[in-house]
Amino acid sequence: MANEQTIPLGRGGKYGQMTVDTDRFQPHVMAHVFTYGLRQILNDAIADKTDDDGKPLPVEDLVAKATKRLETLYSGELRSRADAAEPVDPVMAECYRLVKPVLQAAAKKAPEWAQCPKDEKDKALWVLTTRAKGRGEAFATWDDFIQPRITPDIRKQAERRVKEAEAAKAAVGDI
Predict the structure, then answer these.
(1) Which run of H or E residues covers position 17?
(2) Do residues 87 and 73 touch, judged by C-beta distance below 8 A?
(3) Which residues are CB-contacts of 30 (< 8 A; sequence separation ≥ 6)?
(4) Would you kindly state where each structural domain of the chain is located, as residue ranges?
(5) DSSP category for residue 165
(6) What tens digit of pLDDT does each residue of 157-170 get?
(7) pLDDT tens, 62-73?
(8) Global model pTM greater than 0.70
C-alpha cells in the first residue's frame, strides 16, 4: 500500500492540496526531503533573531532556540502554524487546552498587560515572557510556560476528557 501524504499548497492550503506517494521517491530523494524539512523546522525556531527590544540576539541564544526546538521534536511533540503550541498527542493537546486559558487569564490581570505593544500578536505570551525575563528566566514560547504546569492531576483530567470525547464519538457513530 502506498504511503500517501496530503500536502497543503500555500499557507493553510490556500491553493488547495496535493497527494504525494512517498514510496515513489528514490532513497536519496527521500533523504533530501527529510534533511530539508528538518533544516526548515530548526531554522524556523530562529526566524526572529531579535530580543523584545529589537536588539540582535547573540549566536549562543539562537543556537539555544534551535536546540530547544530539536529537544521538542525528540520529546515527540509536533507543531504547525495552525496549532502553534499544541502537541499531536490527544492527551497532551488536552493538557494544553486546560492550562493555556488559565495562563492567558493571569496575563490579562498582570500590570504588564497595559504596557504590551499594540502590534504584538500574542499579548498574553508577551506578558508572560516579559515577567519571566524580569525574574531572569529565558522563557519565550507557550510550550515554555505550559509544559512545567502539566501536573499529574492535570494529565489525569486530560486523559479523562479524551476518553469521554472518544466514548461520545463512538456513541454518536457515523452520520
Answers:
(1) strand 17-21
(2) no
(3) 22
(4) 86-175
(5) H
(6) 999 999 998 898 88
(7) 898 889 888 888
(8) no
